[in-house]
Amino acid sequence: SPETAIPICAKDISDDLMKEFAFLSGGRGKDKAWIITLPDNAHFNEVPEEIVSKVLTYLTSVPSQHESDTKFILILDRRLDTWTSVKMTLQKIAASFPGNLHLVMVLRPTGFFQRTFTDIGFRFSQEDFLLKLPVVMLSSVSDLLTYIDEQQLTPEFGGTLEYCHSEWVIFRTAIESFALTVKEIAQMLQSFGTELAETELPDDMYSIERILALRTEKYYQLKEDITAVTKEGNLLLSSFEEPDAGERSQDQHCERPGDWETVNRLLGQLCEMETAFDGFWEKHQLKMEQYLQLWKFEQSFQEVKNAIEFLMGQQAELPDTGDSFPQVKQRLKDLGHFDGMAQDLIGKAQVVILHGHQLAANHHYALNLICQQCNELRHHSDVLSDEIKRKQMRLQKTLDLHTRLQQALQCCDEGAYLLANQQMDKCQSKEGAQKALQDIERFLESSSAYLNYDPQALHYDFESVLTSELKCQIQSVQVKLENVRSMFENRQACFKKLLDKHVRPVQLVAPRPENPPRSKSPLFSPKHGKIFEVCGSSSHCIPFLFQIEVMHDYQEKRNSLQSFISDSDDNLDILKGHVINELIETERVYVEELFTVLTGYRAEMDNPAMLILMPPVLRNRKDVLFGNMPEIYDFHNKIFLHSLESCLGAPERVGFCFLDRRQDFQMYEKYCQNKPRSESLWRQCSESTFFQECQRKLEHKLGLDSYLLKPVQRLTKYQLLLKELLKYSTSCDGVQELQEALVAMLDLLKSVNDSMHQISITGYD
């Protein structure tokens, strides 16, 4: 039937098995055939054929699990039964026995009449049975012993084989339950493995760590289940006696069919499954951990790479040259600070690279990718570091050039100072002239390294950093050096002529006593009175004195400046050139000072890191403190400085520059009108830590208030320089524009002054 085709378990037919109308004792007959006993049972024929078939199918299936080609012997104990019952039993068996039936032994009924009926009935029916069943009729138990050894028979047949049917059913149920549990464990492990293999991992670290933790927890739970089942199996195994063929011969050996082997085999399978599962989990866990390591590594890699690329972009904007000593020094300092940030970042990159090498050394599955990213980081770090070093070297070389130019300018100033302070009344005697000549020669000897600078050598030494601006500066310094050398040659010629002819020169008024010039002041600075001389073709030299007087009052006459100068056009051009040089040089310094104030103070007011140092009264009031200084800076940096620089070889254009930008200078009126408010705010917070910290970073010796005064001072400076330039431009192109420019700047000063008085008047429309 279809039901019998399904494997039957003891648990499914336990009630039918417990009726004990058939049992498998474990005994074996000839040819190792298994003995199935049908004990004397008056109700056997009442058992439905379907149940008999299920029980016999189950009993024959037990040894068939361990052996192929199993044979069976049936012992029918019908000593207390009737021939009719025997016949029905044989018919049932012939119809439904599921196995290879080797022999049927019938202990026939012992009653006189029944024995007679059996003999007669069997004789008439024998041919029918023999067609299907090999049947042997036995009269007594002793006949049975001639066929089967007593050690293979249970006690009711005179044998010695111990058998308890209820115990056998319990054990069979336990064995099959254990086998089912082992199968379920195998399915659970298979399901878990499939889940691990097919589940896609998320792309965030927290979720990955969470999944790994949950899977680890499930792994240990399955391990606990395996341990519990193994313990159950070992307990079951210990209840069976292990078969040992060495203790007795195979003929004498009694065994319960395959129980020990079954349980032992299942335990072996369980052990193999656990070993395979542990190996699989170890590989999976390693892969998960490496996946997590790779995720963290790639996060760190991307962060550092982005930071380096950002710094590379910033680095590209940093200049590698400068037009003045302070500018280059500041840029070197800025680059040094930038290099510090870069080195910190490169240090972080080294940590990431080291982490990558550790992963690679541990045979990470993404070895090639990790090595590639490590090489990429190392390359970016090297490029950044090399580029910073290149700029540092260029800036340092540029700084060296500016230093040498400054030294040359200082030498020019000191030379001019020496000549200006020689007391001419004492030089009229032979001794005085000799001493003055010796002073000049000593100076020329000590300063020969600077006075005799070779411009070609400078160009060669600093070729790699020269810009058009630096070339102009070298040319300008060379002009000053030539002028000073010419002055010394003229003065030497004068004194030599005095010594040769012993002619008493014209009595001259001694110059006013002066302070030594500052090392950084431009040559022929209008701030210092200097003696200059021009030697013509006459036989004696005439020293000239000019004194620049500063006028702060507009009401004084504009032509009050008087000076004595040689009529030589060459000397006028030289003096005019020096004034223009000073105008441009001081303009550059002015622009640089405005830039440092705006970046070092004004911009810091928006810096979140500096907010804690800023007094509350100062917050959001940078427009009050600095006024329209950004507007003034943009005008001078982008427009006016370039206009002035274009006049370096064309002094006649200076007046036009001022007139062309006359309207732009009105922005100073706005700055000056804001000055009282700015000063009031400054007085409230001048001692704050914020300003002290900004001044410390800028390395300024003066406070911010001195720099806030610069625009006002610059406005005054323009009219002084224009007056000086006008003095040396008596008969040349551009004089009319220069005069108009001076008038315009003086008018601006008056306008600013009037507006300052006007805003002081309150209470009136």
UniProtKB/TrEMBL annotation:
- GO terms assigned for molecular function: guanyl-nucleotide exchange factor activity
Write out the GO cellular component annotations.
cytoplasm
Q: Pfam families of this UniProt entry? A: CRAL_TRIO_2, RhoGEF, Spectrin_5
Q: Which domain of life is it from?
A: Eukaryota
Q: Name one GO biological process term.
A: intracellular signal transduction
**Which residue range or ranges hold the CRAL-TRIO domain?**
69-165
Stretches assigned to the DH domain: 575-755
InterPro entries attached to this UniProt entry: CRAL-TRIO_dom, CRAL-TRIO_dom_sf, DBL_dom_sf, DH_dom, GDS_CDC24_CS, RhoGEF_Guanine_NuclExch_SF, Spectrin_DBS
Q: Which SMART domains match?
A: RhoGEF (SM00325), SEC14 (SM00516)
Which UniProt keywords are listed? Answer: Guanine-nucleotide releasing factor
SUPFAM superfamilies linked: CRAL/TRIO domain, DBL homology domain (DH-domain), Spectrin repeat
Similarity-based family: Belongs to the MCF2 family.
The name under which this protein is listed is: MCF2 protein
